[in-house]
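Hello Y.,

Per our agreement to keep a running log of every chain we model this quarter, I'm adding this entry. I've kept the format consistent with earlier entries: sequence first, then predicted structure.
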Amino acid sequence: MQRNLSFAIESGDTTSKFDDDGRAKRTGTVTTASAHIITAVVGSGILSLAWAIAQLGWIAGVVALVIFSLITLFTSALLANCYRFPDPITGTRNYNYIEAVKNNLGGLKYKLCGVAQYTNLVGLTIGYTITSAISMAAIKRSQCFHNNGHAAGCHTSNNSYMIIFGMIQIILSQIPNFQDLAGLSYLAAIMSFSYAFIGIGLSTAHIAEGKTGKTSIDGITAGVDVTSSQKVWNSLQAIGNIALAYSYSNVLIEIQDTLKSSPPENLVMKKATTIAVSITSIFYLLCGVLGYLAFGNNAPGNFLTGFGFYEPFWLIDIANICIVVHLVGAYQVFCQPIYQLVEGWMSSRWSGSDFIVIEHPIYIPFIGIYKMNFFRLIWRTVYVIITSVIAMIFPVFNSVLGLIGAISFWPLTVYFPVEMYISQAHIPKFSPTWIWLNILNWACLIITFAAAAACIQGIIVELHHYQPFKSFS
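Predicted structure for the entry above:
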């Protein structure tokens, strides 16, 4: 049974309601796709780029930012061509990443893709729960310092803020699908630019006051700032952070599935990717370079905290509010593919079940008709509760998330897009194009292993202080 999900006011228009596949007509544009991409790409990881450049130095740090932006642009263009199969313009639609891999590569590869993609998505939703709680706790701490003085302890548990974040996500998770997330993505994208601008502004003011830190061509100095082994681990982690900062392939096909069919979706998606990644790269460079210039080799993991929780405390509070609002939207961008995978499977398996299939129209003032589904209500609520509880039990999950991201970076961002392109374009083995594509493949695989090793080392260090349900800021 085909379901027509809508979160908009029903206008009664009966013309052109469906696309060529019988689904509700898609309305996405370059603008909405760009907003989704920016929401997915510009995470709170932007705040760690100053630290990453400090580990690598001016040359390697800036070069790494540029190279990974170009790799993302290239592989995203290859992946955009895989939305339809076998022809990128007239072929049959693939509704998600694993369908694209299944139709282009088949065999065991699409199952491996599914494991990598959905493990990464689940990990991101847990990680965003933890990160948002830390930002909410930071707002309370800055108020505490302002009211009670800088000597006050002002430590607070993050668990209550994880519960608040989870309650918000339970409500927002009832938005049926990606098609209806455009407004939330616009807001989230604006918020991501807002806290980036605040960080850039504070860094610029720091530099203007002559408070620049010590910088160098090769970053932190082994034997002076850190030990030789720490220099190696930190450099590997920095490269991994930069590579993962551009990664959004795990939701690219799902975003592309929201686009109008004319002009062709692959052309629109490539344009949206170019716009979004270009804008993102500019902000990454500004935050990374200005943050490193402001703090030098002592750049903190979150360069906003480098300005202290003190003055201007209200500006830091605004930045943290923007981070929380952005993560609220980003959570939805990354969990929607999970929701739709489960709901699609359940609908096909039990298509005759009213509990799973039937949509119940409910009038919501100022919004219109919302079609409620009981299975969607219960399943999505349970998912948010489970991810919130995991976040509270395992507060060092951000390091685990880094490991999951590192492991999934190569297959999702590079390997599968390249392999599907080779298959789709019938590139002959050992031809010049085949050779350099495989060089790219192997180079990114090495980067993945290096970043994963650094994350494992970080997890081992953090586990020495691990206490379940004991997450404090």
